[in-house]
Write a structure and sequence with these properties.
The protein is an alpha/beta fold and 765 residues long. Among the domains are: 140 residues, no CATH class; 194 residues, Rossmann fold (3-Layer(aba) Sandwich), CATH 3.40.50.1460. The chain is 59% helix and 10% strand. Strands 6, 7, 8, 9, 10, 11, 12 and 13 form an 8-stranded mixed sheet that branches. Helix 9 runs antiparallel to helix 10 and helix 23 crosses helix 24.
Amino acid sequence: MKKLIIALIKFVESKKFSNSILILLTLIIVFSPAWASETKNDTTASNHSRLLEKIQTIKKQLTSENTAVIETPALYLKLAKTYSKLGKSKKEFEALNNASDIANLLNNQQDKLSVLIELGNYYAHRGDFNKSEKFLLSSINLAATMNNQNVTFVIKNNLANVYVSQGKFSDAYALYTDILSNENDSKNRNIYAKTHLNMARSYYTENKPIKSKQHLSKAYNATVKIVDNSEKVKLLLGIGKLFMNIGSETIPNYQEQTFNALNQAKQISSAIGDNRSLTYAYGYLGRLYEIEEKTKDALILTRNAEKLALLENMPESLYQWQWQIARLLKLSGDSSAAILAYQAAINTLEPIRHLLLRGQIRHGSFRQTIGGVYIELTDLLLTTSTDNKKDTKNITRLLVQAREIMESYKGAELQDYFQDDCVTKLTNKTRGIDKLDNHTAAIYPIVFPDRIELLLSTPDGLKRFSSNIDEKTLTNESQNFRRLVEKRTTRQYLKHAKKLYQWLIDPIKDELEKQSINTLVVIPDSILRTIPFAALHDGKQFIVNNYAIVVSPGLSLTDPQPLDREDISIMGNGITDSIQGFPALPYVDNELKNINQLYETALLKDKHFTEQNFQNTLKKQPFNIVHIASHGQFESNSQDSFLLTYSSKLTMNKLEKYLLQAKFRDKPIELLTLSACQTAKGDDRAALGLAGIAIKAGVRSAVATLWFVNDNASSTLVSDFYQQLNINTISKAKALQKAQVAMIQGDRYRHPSYWSPFLLIGNWL
């Protein structure tokens, strides 16, 4: 059939027929099963681009012949799926909206249902679970009026999975239970097996392994009764993988149950010629043998999986087997081969990473999922550098490799958080990570389960230091420090500030002094994103007394360019009133007035600070500093993060959109200041959003706060920061340092709760 489709395409391109035949052939090609199969199986961007190009070429040919193009919801849904696999989210959304418009115009219930389902899935994959829930609920109601039970069950499963991702487990179980109420119906055995598997996954996510195992066994019992086909194989693979994940603590014979499910999947997929499923069967069996420390057998199985993934052009699975091979080689003691295998896995992963991040509802942080390959390789490189104590040149090479891997990891982590390509846009423009200015150093604290590694980049090169503090101890100490440093009436934070200084700064202190470092760029990792480094204490004074502290998500993600002081213009925005349930900020008025006395400022305050006015003002005038004195929150999900305007909440995507339109004017936006924002307390993923705000907003630097600061104190510090910034010889980092030190030396706001949450993010010059 595939050859026939290719022949039809060539026939279409020849134009040797009437327009009516052209339309008929186009519809045959676009809606044929072979086309759908090819679209489903081709996973690389080039293959998807080729298929998409054919559709667009045919459409252009129809238009050039003055023929009315027959646009149907189904056509646009197919386009949306292709755009999804290409990672073109905006185009995908546009195609879905076109499908929706046509379905509503034609008033075809089946088309409306298909569109609602796909919109629900689209928002689920984007992490916007509230919108996903809305569309899936609408599709359930519509399917019910059409008496389409099978489709209703499928949608309910999708919606229940969304509820699990939101942590609404009781709502999810209610839907799963509803589907299983007619479980004795043998016609829907596939759906019931899938529902039990989804319930098992949900209980596993909720850390209830006993209940998870119960539903997993029911899923297996239902699956073995299904006729051998690809759907059965997928169920067996899912069951086997979850048996393996639950592990031996709650299932004494989990190896046998895992092996039975995966081996059946291997046999069936081999018999029916389903190589795509067979690669997973080999790979998961290799993982089972890895757990059992049968390294040689595990390597054989995993290499079989790797060969099939290469043969079938499946990079989304290939990187997993390369990663697994790397772990097995490391276990066997072959570090050199393991490093090459890790690098191969990352090379395979990089071009498709954004597709994987957008294409699934994932549980757990990025670090716990595909981020592990970067962390494990960094660990191996650092460990190997220790084994080469006499080979200075090789040590340097390994350390540079480790730093480069961490830079890639930081970029991947931000891309996962923001779910877009803002990181890629920036890395194409930055100067690189080896061009630090004199008296400036960058420290990479890397948190491993058993220790903290400190990579220190200075103008003289790269050095490695370590602290033998395990991750659990570091996490507890960081959380206690963060909790207590916010309390203005106590100095209990001090002992924790000293411990963290001892672990993170003491090992590098001599090197900093030797090179006369006065600006320290911190690339924080994990829980360390939630703490204010400026408040670390050496027993005599705060670290900010000696160093200007800057936070960066990565040096390759920072564009260090000096601020042009000749013609600074500021757009000042602020809220003083109590609105939308947030308290008033009366000192914002003074803050904006103080800035206006120093610089030419366009002001939008209270009822004038609306999204529309914000957007219009940015369009009309060039600014190099945008100041927003209003409530803001950074959450674990970037979709929930916002800045407060008078009548709405400005999302990060909208902020990016509005600032982007100003970037292409004569003056780039050098600095975005957010003087009343806060992160979810103790949440390192929310703090990741704060650390990446400059990148997301498309500006060189940002000033923002880890927690909400006393209104008057915030106004005082910010005003002093801009006063210092008015001195041509002072960098942004030094301007913030001087403002913070001034508060330390005063009487009213010397406690770090007032000044330490202010972070300079990104460009420090």
